[in-house]
Design a protein that fits this description.
The protein has about 350 residues and is an alpha/beta fold. The protein is built from twelve helices and 14 strands. The strands form five sheets. Strands 9-10-8-7-13-14 form a six-stranded mixed sheet. A two-stranded parallel sheet has the order 1-4.
């Protein structure tokens, strides 16, 4: 979070960032001294002050203001900032309950705004706060876009050198493979997994028949489906734990959102339409929104909703074909069953 050190005095943070420390009471929106004491006797006294969503951390003035903003005559307000996922929610326009954001990045994250804190004894759903004064229950998977890049590097795709060209070729080949990959499942846990909590898990390619191991399209599609099913399983866990969490669409951000092939698989598997914010760097845009609300002195969600954020591209809708739905459902059920059998 912005707002620490010499320019503004006492270190500060916001509830969003603070809720990721492990010593924050999300319901009370304050650091818990008992939890802090488990870290060290003096730790609680070193923690920053937690600011409200639109509360300034301080101002830049004098020589430092003149050095950084020579065109600015008045003092410059410094906002408290927030965490990356909290800012991404703002940038995607997810500021009220009923909406959810799916980030397809190096890791996969799924989060939505809630009015009440979420308590999940299993630890699957993280009880984060958001940047508006509400809560942001979140699930995260380690196996996402980075795992797919690893798979691409290992596939035999003739005449392709760059990662982008390899991805295009792999998606073209994978598009010729039916959903469900004919019974082949790729469990994508090359580096272990946190959702489900199997840190010792490893990747597994199951259900192969003779002649399939060299089928690059099949292997890549199975990998994309495996990543998607891991996120879908996390989505179901989140819906079971979070009262009222039942989004009618997903706002998709992250580098993976640029792949129409992957997004169609996500939409078909989740059975939900996908929309795409106009600004793909949603976290950076959200940080600017948070700062704007701070300068204006108005609620953050009010400032965001005044921006009239439009869609970035056409909405992706799930297939209505019954056979397609059946194949995805059967493949997802195999994914969950095989994961449990191998790693639980």
């Amino acid at each position: 979070a912005v707002g620490t050190g010499r320019p503004v005095g006492r270190p500060t943070t916001d509830a969003g960032d603070a809720s990721g420390t492990g010593v924050f009471d999300a319901a009370a929106r304050r650091f818990d001294p008992k939890l802090a004491d488990l870290v060290g006797e003096k730790f609680f006294g070193t923690l920053p002050r937690v600011l409200g969503p639109s509360e300034p951390a301080g101002v830049l003035h004098g020589g430092l203001r003149d050095e950084l903003f020579p065109w600015q005559a008045a003092d410059v307000v410094v906002s408290c900032g927030s965490g990356d996922n909290m800012c991404a929610a703002l940038g995607a326009g997810c500021v009220r309950p009923g909406r959810a954001v799916l980030s397809l990045g190096t890791s996969g994250t799924l989060f939505g705004v809630a009015d009440a804190p979420v308590v999940d004894p299993s630890g699957t759903v993280a009880p984060f706060c958001d940047a508006t004064g509400r809560h942001l229950p979140l699930v995260c998977t380690m196996s996402c876009a980075a795992m797919l890049d690893d798979v691409l590097a290992g596939l035999h795709l003739s005449g392709t050198d760059s990662l982008s060209a390899r991805r295009t070729a792999a998606e073209l080949a994978a598009g010729a493979v039916a959903p469900g990959c004919g019974g082949v499942n790729f469990l994508p846990y090359l580096e272990g997994e946190r959702t489900p909590n199997f840190p010792g898990a490893r990747g597994a390619l199951l259900g192969l028949a003779p002649g399939q191991l060299g089928n690059a399209g099949l292997i890549y599609r199975a990998a994309v489906e495996g990543v998607t099913y891991t996120l879908l399983d996390a989505f179901h866990k989140m819906r079971n734990v979070c009262p009222g969490f039942d989004p009618s669409e997903l706002l998709v951000v992250g580098g993976g959102s640029r792949s129409k092939f992957w997004c169609q698989i996500v939409s078909d598997s989740f059975g939900l339409p996908l929309s795409f914010p106009a600004e793909t760097e949603a976290a950076a845009l959200g940080a600017a929104f948070q700062a704007g609300a701070c300068v204006r002195g108005i609620p953050v969600e009010e400032f965001v909703e005044k921006q009239n954020l439009g869609p970035g591209r056409d909405t992706v809708f799930p297939s209505e074909d019954g056979e397609t739905k059946r194949l995805y459902q059967e493949a997802f059920e195999r994914h969950v069953k095989l994961t449990s059998a191998l790693f639980s």
